[in-house]
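Researcher: Structure for this, please.
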Amino acid sequence: MLAFAVLGSLYAFQQPFRQYPGQEYPEFKLPPDWREKTEWVFARLMYPPHPSIGLFRTRGPWQEGWAAWTNDYPRADRHFTVAVRRLTRLDVRSVEQPVNLDDGDDVYNYPWLYAVQAGSMNLTDTEAAKLRDYLLHGGFLVCDDFWGTLEWSNFERNMRLVFPDRPIVEIEDADSAFHTVFDLTKSPIPGEWSLRSGRPYRNDGVDPHWRGIYDDKGRMMVAIWFNIDTGDSWEWADWPEYPEQYSALGIRMGINFIVYSMTH
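Model: Predicted structure, token format:
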């Protein structure tokens, strides 16, 4: 983590706040304190989408929000940051930051990255190399809300670009990521869409998995929430018809992994 702190001081010229149209929210009101400088920011990974896998939009370039990386955005991010403010001592910015790996060294300003619909990523070799360097220098990536065999296969292909020789393994129940702040057990987190449709999964993604990629010292660098929709549990946390038990679990899981990323 010391190496990452040094990098953070070297690459201090971060991109200004920016907001793009989301898949579900073309416009979203900014909170009154959005300009405040804080010690921690929810960083959302921007990525080029696969042309035929996952949820995506084709009305414009992915760099301007027209891709699956904007799923649940920015409502999930804003709700989750409110919870992180309330349940930890972190000084958290009220607005998220979309982070593009092609923006020079900007990614090094953010120790925690979140990628939604991660099965539809289509990283270039250059982006994969940048992500690998970021993770090896102490960064942390959470990959969420992708489902079934096809999306897993594409996700695995992207991770092989990032780490050709590092395995993806199941996270053990005893891993400290599940016990940093809250003692959690592995429980499914359904999306709002599943409650409406009565179908608890997409594609053939029946069984939820918590997987990870670790460095040589046993530190988790990539957390993989597969066949799980944690982002929806944040997005719909203020909706009375979405069960509180799932929002509470999703928020607690997110907080655990944030604290893990800052202490390991």
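Researcher: Any notable elements?
Model: The first strand starts at residue 43 and ends at 46. The chain has one domain: 2-263.
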